[in-house]
Design a protein that fits this description.
With about 180 residues, the protein is of the alpha/beta class. It contains four helices and seven strands. The radius of gyration is 23 Å and the shape is elongated.
Length: about 180
C-alpha cells in the first residue's frame, strides 16, 4: 500500500510539473507573437527587407537573356514558385497590375519548373528563373517566401512589401 501511495504522489507531482511547463511555453509563445516584429500567424516574418531597406547588388538574366541589375530595377518584383497554390491564386491579379505598369517596371522571379507560370508572366514582366538556392535576385532581397511582392523605388530601396497585389501601392513609374 505505501508503494501505491508513493506512485500516486509521484504521478501527481509529474503531472503538475508538466502543466506548469506547458503554461510557461504558451505564455512565451503568446509574448513572442505579440512583440513588435513578431508574426503571430507564421512564426517567421516573410519579409526580411522592410520599407526603406536597400536592395542588395545582383546581376541576373531574364528568361529571354536580358540582363537585370539593381540599377535597372524599379517597380514591382514578385517571387513565385512551382507547386505554390497561393502563387497561382495571385497570378491573375499580378498579371493585371503588370499590364498597367508596363513590362519594364515588373520583374517576376520564378522558382522551379512551372512552364505555365512562366508563360503567363513573360508577356507582362521580365522573368528570371530562380536557381535551386534562390539565385542572385532572391539573395539580394533576402527572400525565402512565395508569393512575395516588393515595390522598389528609383533609389533602389524597398518602398512597400505585400503578399497580395491589392496591398501593394501603385508605383508612380507605371502607365496607370
Amino acid at each position: 500500500m505505501p508503494y501505491l501511495v508513493a506512485a500516486v504522489v509521484l504521478v501527481g507531482a509529474l503531472s503538475l510539473l508538466n502543466l506548469l511547463l506547458t503554461l510557461g511555453i504558451l505564455r512565451r509563445m503568446r509574448a513572442d507573437a505579440l512583440r513588435p516584429g513578431g508574426n503571430a500567424g507564421h512564426g517567421v516574418d516573410p519579409f526580411a527587407l522592410k520599407p526603406g531597406s536597400p536592395v542588395g547588388e545582383f546581376t541576373a538574366l531574364t528568361s529571354e537573356g536580358d540582363p537585370v541589375t539593381r540599377e535597372t530595377l524599379t517597380g514591382v518584383v514578385g517571387f513565385f514558385s512551382a507547386g505554390c497554390e497561393p502563387c497561382h491564386e495571385l497570378l491573375p491579379d499580378f498579371v493585371a497590375r503588370a499590364r498597367e505598369l508596363g513590362r519594364d517596371h515588373v520583374l517576376a522571379v520564378v522558382g522551379g519548373d512551372d512552364r505555365d507560370l512562366v508563360a503567363a508572366l513573360t508577356p507582362v514582366a521580365r522573368v528570371v528563373l530562380a536557381e535551386p538556392d534562390g539565385g542572385p535576385v532572391a539573395r539580394a532581397f533576402r527572400n525565402e517566401w512565395t508569393p512575395a511582392l516588393y515595390l522598389v523605388g528609383p533609389d533602389g530601396r524597398i518602398a512597400a512589401t505585400a503578399a497580395r497585389v491589392e496591398e501593394l501601392p501603385v508605383p508612380a513609374t507605371g502607365r496607370a
